[in-house]
Every structure is written in structure tokens, then in C-alpha cells.
Write a sequence for this structure.
């Protein structure tokens, strides 16, 4: 049989994963027409905006979209047309953690995946390769296959592939241009292997062959959860050690450096922080916990749950350190929180540690000034409202102010808390900040960002994750 030739791709879901991934496919494969569809009209309009005010902030993304949009890259709300035209469809919809029902708080909500899959079955008039791109629990491909096969028209066959995305936000474009690996899982039948070869051919336009790994469906799905769980575990391990450092006088940066020199461990992803956030780590580990429990493996479930528990502990420990240091009360005091995104170079706030910290400060009845260079103000209000569902937004707004610069946020504050490692925070004029703060002035560095010595010389008391407090000299 001749290899399947992919000429038209549809991506269902124009979010953080589908948008950048398929924009890069379009850029690198000018001979393939790529249509990204989404039900959310505002999102699609933003992708199509004449001045490239894209719905997500990602360095380099706007150049990619500028080069390909209108050439072979299209954004549309016409989901059915996108499905009908395509030879290959990526399903890249959201899979949040379930909020109610069986598995609430752990299992992934697969409603969006199922609806998209059913839509494909209803609309398709020709055979398609359907690629599961969203991070999903193991065996989802199996359910998708069952739904598609039960609803397909005669002469339509569906081959399901799993092709998890490993991009990290903030570096998505670089990750997509030069991925560590592309992973494709398929059934090990001839049809499955042919579909796998077709998708490998698409990536082969710019990814070296030895970076394209082909495995079974199950392995592919589990590998994505495993990779995220192991990355998060590294952060929880270093954060657990940071607590020991603070109590003993060791310095977590020095420990991480020494440990990372072991080539078996390696230096990356060992930065202690106020806690990991993002849409993936917590969700994927909880997914793994749920899977382990469903498989009657409670010890395995407990092992992974501990990674998330340690992360929660790290966030609480940090906000407690703020309260303890400010003489055991922050009631009526003003705290400046610098950074609201879950990490630098993204406007994404999902599971951001800043949300937990601010909620803690609010419940201590402190006033909070927030500054983030990228997160839209509406998003901050929405996150704070969601974090405190019983508090009316007007009450929240009496306690919280969103500022338009770091300097403005720090004015008249008792303490500055660094929650996100934005580069511009390296440029802060700390002498000026100090002059405008109430005294004694405190800095709490949750991202190992400031020069402690310089700040203590100015007069600050500095508390950094993984180091004992530095008093003014
Ligand atoms: C992660 C995975 O890296 C990526 O492969 C997967 O596809 C999606 O999930 P992402 O969530 O975008 O990507 O960001 P990542 O860079 O992994 O950071 C996650 C969180 O860990 C952030 O809050 C970050 O600040 C924190 N982190 C990361 C640390 O606290 N210390 C580190 O050393 C690294
Ligand atoms: P991710 O980080 O996984 O990309 P996002 O929430 O950023 O998740 O994006 C998922 C997108 O999928 C959203 O824009 C949502 O509107 C879209 N979506 C969800 N279900 C469907 C569907 N059935 N058809 C089309 N788009 C969908």
C-alpha cells in the first residue's frame, strides 16, 4: 500500500497546545493546509486579529503566525468544515481535572475530548487519522476508537494515534522547532503503523528521524504522564531540601549545583521555588494517582500523591514565613506581589503559586498589590474570584489592587514577595523601592532572583527560598 499522504490537517482546539503546535506545523510544512478550529469565537478572532494580538503570549509565536497565516494556516470556528476537509485531525481540547462526580479532584474531565470525538464521527465522510494531542489518561485512545467505530459511516475508517505534546510554555516555539523527541503511539497493526508513518512524515519535514520515537498507544499515553510526574517530582525534591536549607543555614542553590554536577542527575530543573504551577504538573500527577488507585495500586498512588502534597506544603510554608517574619501578623499591612503567572514568559496563570499566596494573604486580612507584566487584569480578578468563591468580588477588590509597574506595587508596602521570575524584576531599582516602602522593609524571594547582599546593604531584610533570613547590615 502507498504511504498515506497528509495534505490537510485540522486541529480541534486553539489553546496553549493546539495553537502553537499547529502554527509551527504550518510554518514548517508549507505544502500542508492547516486549519485550527475552536468553538470559542473570541479566541478565534484573536488568532485572526489584523494586528496579531494573539490570545496567548508566547515568545516567537507572533512571527510564526505572521509567516503562515493566510498562506497555509487558518483559524476558524467552523469545526465541521475543518473536520470534513482534513486527512489528519489533532484533538487538542482542554482536559481539566474533574470538579464533581466520580474521580472529582483527580481524574481528567474527558467531556471535551468525547464531544470533539463524537463530532468527528458525525461529520466525517472520508477516512481520517485522528491524533490525540491533549494530555489524557491512559486508555483514552481506546475510548476514542470505540466511539469513532460505533458511529462511523460505511467506507470511513479512523486510525487513532497518540502524539503527546512536550512543549513548555514560555519556550513553546523553541521546543517545537527543536524538540527533544516527538512521540507517536499507534496500534501495532499494519493500519496503525501506516498512520504512524504518515504523522512521522509530517514531523520529518523538520525533526531529525532519530528524534521521532514510535511506540504502542498505551506507552505513548503513559510516557507523557510519566515525564510530567518525574519533572514535578524533581521540583518537589529540591523544594523539600529547601526547607532543610532554611533550617540549617545551607544554601539550596549551592546544594542544587553540587547535586546537579552528577551527570546521572544533571543540572536542569533543580531550581527551588515557591511551588510549581501550570496546567500540567498537578493535573497529570493526580491523573496518575487516580489511575494507580483504579488499578488497585495504593502504594503507587500514595507515592505520586506526595509530590503534589509537597508542592502544597511549599506554598503554605512560604506564606507562613511571610506572616511569621512580619511579627506574626500582616493584618492591615500592604504586601506587594510581583508576578502572577505560573512562570516567566507566559501570561498563563493556571495553578500559579501566586494565587495561593494571595489567597493566604487575603485571609490574614492584608492588603495586596499585584503586578505582572503579561497577565490581563480580568484574568487576575477571575482567578482570585475562583479561589475565594464565597467572597464577593467587590470585597476582594477592596483588599487587592492591580498595579501597572513593580514600582507602583511596592509603594507604601511592608513587604515585597517575588512569585514569578520575570526578567524585568532583575532591573528593579531597589534603592528607589526601599525609599518608598514602610520600614522595616522586607523582601521575600520565592524565585532565587534578587541579589541578597545588595538588598541587605540597602536596608532590606531578605528572605529567600532555601536560605536562612538575611538581616540588614
Ligand atoms: C510542563 C513540562 O515541562 C512540559 O514538558 C509539558 O508539556 C507541560 O508541562 P510547563 O508547565 O509549561 O511545562 O512549564 P515548566 O517549565 O515545566 O514549569 C512548570 C512549573 O515548575 C512552573 O511553575 C515553574 O516555575 C516550576 N519550576 C520549573 C520550578 O519551580 N523549578 C524548576 O527548576 C523548573
Ligand atoms: P490546552 O492548554 O490543553 O491547549 P486550552 O484550554 O488552552 O487547553 O485550549 C483548549 C481549547 O479547546 C479551548 O480554546 C476550547 O474552546 C477548545 N475546545 C474545547 N472543546 C472543543 C470542541 N468540541 N470543539 C472545538 N474546540 C473545543
Amino acid at each position: 500500500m502507498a504511504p498515506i499522504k497528509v495534505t490537510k490537517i485540522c486541529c480541534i482546539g486553539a489553546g496553549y497546545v493546539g495553537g502553537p503546535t499547529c502554527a509551527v506545523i504550518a510554518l514548517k510544512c508549507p505544502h500542508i493546509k492547516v486549519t485550527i478550529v475552536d468553538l470559542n469565537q473570541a479566541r478565534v478572532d484573536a488568532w485572526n486579529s489584523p494586528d496579531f494580538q494573539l490570545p496567548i503570549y508566547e515568545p516567537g509565536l507572533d512571527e510564526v503566525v505572521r509567516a503562515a497565516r493566510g498562506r497555509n494556516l487558518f483559524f476558524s470556528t467552523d469545526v465541521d468544515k475543518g473536520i470534513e476537509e482534513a486527512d489528519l485531525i489533532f484533538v487538542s481540547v482542554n482536559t481539566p481535572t474533574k470538579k464533581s462526580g466520580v474521580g472529582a479532584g483527580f481524574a481528567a474531565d474527558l467531556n471535551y475530548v468525547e464531544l470533539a470525538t463524537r463530532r468527528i464521527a458525525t461529520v466525517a465522510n472520508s477516512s481520517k487519522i485522528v491524533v490525540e494531542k491533549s494530555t489524557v489518561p491512559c486508555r483514552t485512545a481506546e475510548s476514542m476508537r470505540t466511539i469513532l467505530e460505533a458511529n462511523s459511516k460505511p467506507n470511513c475508517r479512523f486510525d487513532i494515534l497518540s502524539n503527546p505534546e512536550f512543549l513548555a510554555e514560555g519556550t513553546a516555539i523553541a521546543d517545537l522547532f527543536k524538540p527533544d523527541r516527538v512521540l507517536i503511539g499507534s496500534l501495532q497493526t499494519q493500519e496503525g503503523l501506516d498512520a504512524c508513518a504518515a504523522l512521522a512524515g509530517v514531523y520529518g519535514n523538520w525533526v531529525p528521524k532519530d528524534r521521532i520515537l514510535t511506540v504502542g498507544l498505551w506507552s505513548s499515553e503513559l510516557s507523557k504522564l510519566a515525564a510530567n510526574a518525574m519533572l514535578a517530582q524533581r521540583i518537589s525534591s529540591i523544594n523539600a531540601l529547601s526547607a532543610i536549607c532554611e533550617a540549617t543555614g545551607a544554601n539550596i542553590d549551592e546544594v542544587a549545583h553540587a547535586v546537579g554536577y552528577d551527570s546521572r542527575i544533571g543540572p536542569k530543573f533543580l531550581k527551588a521555588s515557591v511551588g510549581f504551577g501550570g496546567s500540567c504538573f498537578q493535573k497529570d500527577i493526580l491523573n496518575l494517582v487516580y489511575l494507580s488507585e483504579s488499578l488497585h495500586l495504593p502504594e503507587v498512588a500514595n507515592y505520586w500523591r506526595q509530590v503534589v502534597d509537597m508542592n502544597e506544603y511549599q506554598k503554605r510554608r512560604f506564606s507562613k514565613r511571610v506572616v511569621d517574619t512580619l511579627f506574626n501578623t500582616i493584618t492591615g499591612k500592604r504586601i506587594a506581589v510581583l508576578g502572577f503567572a505560573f512562570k516567566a514568559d507566559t501570561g498563563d496563570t493556571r495553578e500559579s503559586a501566586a494565587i495561593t499566596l494571595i489567597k493566604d494573604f487575603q485571609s490574614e486580612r492584608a492588603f495586596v498589590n499585584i503586578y505582572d507584566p503579561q497577565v490581563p487584569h480580568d484574568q487576575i480578578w477571575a482567578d482570585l474570584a475562583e479561589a475565594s468563591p464565597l467572597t464577593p468580588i467587590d470585597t476582594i477588590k477592596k483588599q487587592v489592587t492591580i498595579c501597572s509597574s513593580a514600582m507602583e506595587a511596592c509603594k507604601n508596602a511592608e513587604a515585597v514577595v517575588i512569585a514569578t521570575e520575570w526578567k524585568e524584576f532583575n532591573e528593579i531599582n531597589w534603592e528607589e523601592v526601599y525609599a518608598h516602602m514602610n520600614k522595616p522593609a522586607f523582601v521575600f524571594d520565592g524565585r532565587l532572583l534578587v541579589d541578597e547582599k545588595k538588598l541587605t546593604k540597602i536596608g532590606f531584610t531578605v528572605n529567600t527560598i532555601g536560605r536562612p533570613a538575611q538581616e540588614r547590615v
About this structure: The radius of gyration is 24 Å. The chain has a mean pLDDT of 95.
